[in-house]
Amino acid sequence: MSELQKSFAKSKLGKLPPDPPQIFDSPTAGASSSSMHPLDEASYDDDSSSASSTGTIVPSPSRQLFARPGRGSSSALTSLNWTDFFTQELFLPEENNNINIVHHVYLTPPTDSGPLFVMHHGAGSSGLSFAVCTEEIRKIIPKAGILSLDARDHGSTTTTKADGHGEVELDLSLETLSRDLMFVIRETQSKMGWDHLPDIVLVGHSLGGAVITDVAKKGELGPKLLAYAVLDVVEGSAMDALQSMEKYLSTRPSRFPSLTSGIEWHTRSRTIRNRVSARASVPSLLYEEENPADPSRRWVWRTNLGNTKPFWENWFVGLSRKFLEARGGKLLLLAGTDRLDKELMIGQMQGKYQLQVLPEAGHFIQEDQPAKTAQILVDFYKRNDRSALVLPPKVADMQASSAMKKGVGAPDGKVLGDNERIGWTKRP
Fold it and tell me: What is the 3-state secondary structure (H, E, C) of the chain?
């Protein structure tokens, strides 16, 4: 380079602004660990990698590198509204055995013959535990519909005595929850004015997995049920876990000073490992008492999991057998292969169902890894989508086509055998 060119280059470079700070040095540059600034795990907002593992990351000075658009770190622990993820909510009243129950569901209707993913959450959770995951599903299949319910005594679903006197006895038996799910599906169809149900994929997490498996086994949805997916629950490990459930419940906070502190506890304890999902789902798990015993901690759990103990065994006994025997495509999505019991191990080796494992997720797979869970569910749906199947022609149709090409056929469309063709000539 000539002296004139060097002089010109220096004059131009001198006018440039200083380089923005780098949070990660390129591994190829031989950076030491002390020069790196790892993210605090509680600030992790998404489940997908936001940057190459081999490139230097240079953030824009005006925004956080890992912040979701419109959900910046300045409001990192504020709650997100259900309208960020669904187009409408429905309140579906039902009177049964002198009990008034108002089922609450979140809905985004399918379009253009798209499938309907029906989501059932686990014990103590709510329909919003699928909020971020369903957003990811619709990014892949915009025409897909989502129906995510709040089970009775969870979220915004309420139960009261029809005569207005006394409290409703808690009933979270598997039979009751399965009946509730069928009512919600049919009543949503009626409310939305659908002539027929869309093709359905049932998805259930934990307790919800037991419920959707029970519904699939009973076959009440008929051919409209394409497939069902169970998230992180199997009979063997679930029954084992019940032994330590009471101990776990005794260690978690019973009250929170604010909604924000409730969200923070879920992320710091890694109960939910994705902050965005925690901001969407946790507010539906808590409510503010009007006259709290402890005014400094007004927020309490909507669902008292301790009171559900009488139903724990009922939820999971026989789950593996029903899962393998029910008709339809089957997916088991786990956070670890150690959760498989003997019956499911045998079934998996026999190819009776699809098994996927996300070891980087905790128990709340759909919340910890929403994008990956969504992609797995979409791929699972596509493998079971009958409308996409191209079936081979029937043998009779092939014979008729061959006969027509040869100019041989019967007036009524019957394909003639060799003996029948004798004495019968082609029509002019």
Answer: CCHHHHHHHHHHHCCCCCCCCCCECCHHHCCCHHHCCCCCHHHCCCCCCCCCCCCCECCCCCCCCCCECCECHHHCCCCCCHHHCCCEEEEEEEEECCEEEEEEEEEECCCCCCCEEEEECCCCCCHHHHHHHHHHHHHHCCCCEEEEEECCCCCCCEEEECCCCCCCCCCCCHHHHHHHHHHHHHHHHHHHCCCCCCCEEEEEECHHHHHHHHHHHHCCCHHHEEEEEEECCCHHHHHHHHHHHHHHHHHCCCEECCHHHHHHHHHHCCCCCCHHHHHHHHHHHEEECCCCCCCCCCEEECCCHHHHHHHHHHHHCCHHHHHHHCCCEEEEEECCHHHCCHHHHHHHHCCCCEEEECCCCCCCHHHHCHHHHHHHHHHHHHHHCHHHCCCCCCHHHHHHHHHHHCCCCCCCCCCCCHHHHCCCCCCC
